Amino acid sequence: MTDQPQPPLQIAIVPVTPFQQNCSIIWETQTKQAAIVDPGGDVPKLLAAVKELGVTPVAIWLTHGHLDHAGGATELAEALSVPIIGPHEGDKPLLDALPEQGLRFDIHGMRAVVPTRWLSEGETVSLGDLVFTVAHVPGHSPGHVTFFQKDLRFLLAGDTVFAGSVGRTDFPYGDHEALISGIKAKLLPLGDDVQFLPGHGPASTLGEERKNNPFLQG
């Protein structure tokens, strides 16, 4: 009996913060190069997970600037000596205000984030030979981005689309119409077979959401 070949991309989900945000550690199997996507907090837990997985972090990727996604980024970047990539510059006000965001939820010690590199529509980020294309999908926040790996049909969706729902837009800077039009114009056309991991809750496929997500009908 032969061992099954490992997939080229592997993912470990580490829920962080009281909001149980899906921080994901993703890595390219061959090189074990890893990106930590949306480290909202609980940095010691994330460092322990990195060590246990035996991967080599090369970057932190941020989909957007809300505290449950970005609150631990500065501390983690310093601990690992890696750059912070993303989101789009539209989220600069949110990243600047992370300490105040935290205090509103009685979370102390959050630090502002200054990304090493902002991202724009159509840019790419890489892990080993795996290239992810960036889409700018505002609405949940002005600078929200997603990361799509075309060959593997996999999308890191952040808080744009969820299984059966979409991102909240009742926060400052939210825009429901922009979010829905962005999902329909930029994410659903990627294909029904695309699996996506959202910022909260279970994974789904774009086909499932196109057919059955009540927010995306009509």
Description:
By secondary structure, the chain is of the alpha+beta class. The protein has one domain: 4-Layer Sandwich (Metallo-beta-lactamase, Chain A). Helix content is 25%, strand content 28%. The protein has 7 helices and 13 strands. The chain has helices at 43-53, 67-70, 73-80, 92-96, 98-104, 176-187, 206-212; strands at 9-16, 21-28, 33-37, 56-61, 84-85, 124-127, 130-136, 145-149, 154-158, 161-162, 165-166, 195-198, 204-205. Strands 6-7-8-9-12-13 form a 6-stranded mixed sheet. Strands 1-2-3-4-5 form a 5-stranded mixed sheet, with helices on one face. A hairpin with a 4-residue loop joins strand 2 (21-28) and strand 3 (33-37). The chain is globular. The model has no long low-confidence stretch (mean pLDDT 96).
